[in-house]
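agent> Task received from the user: take the single chain below, predict its 3D structure, and emit structure tokens. No templates, no multimer pairing.
agent> Plan: (1) validate residues, (2) run structure prediction, (3) serialize to tokens, (4) report one or two observations.
agent> Step 1 OK, no nonstandard residues flagged.
tool_call: predict_structure(input=
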Amino acid sequence: MAFGIKRTELLKWKHDIDEGRIAFLTHYWVDDRFSQMRTVTKAGALSIDQLHQWGKQYGLKKEWIHIREDGYSHYDLIGPTQLEILKAEGLDDHIRRFNLK
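)
tool_result: status=success, residues=101
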């Protein structure tokens, strides 16, 4: 279950993907499979190949991509990997807003 996100943020994420960019959306998250995690960052792209090529630099595997029929396929970034990638991508605002340290 996702929460702590505004509709405008979701629409911007989708717009950035539609424009061919790698887009990032961080929000609060509850998932019984990962009960110790409280946030997730979705790193999305329009092209699976583009997303896979981007993810390789961070050691992300293609099979980890959540493939969506609506065109908003993405990696779910959590834990230390989430923080490492947010730092590397210069997304300090995500880190501050969700207190990811």
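agent> Step 4: summary for the user.
The beta strands are 2-3, 23-29, 39-44, 74-77.
agent> Done.
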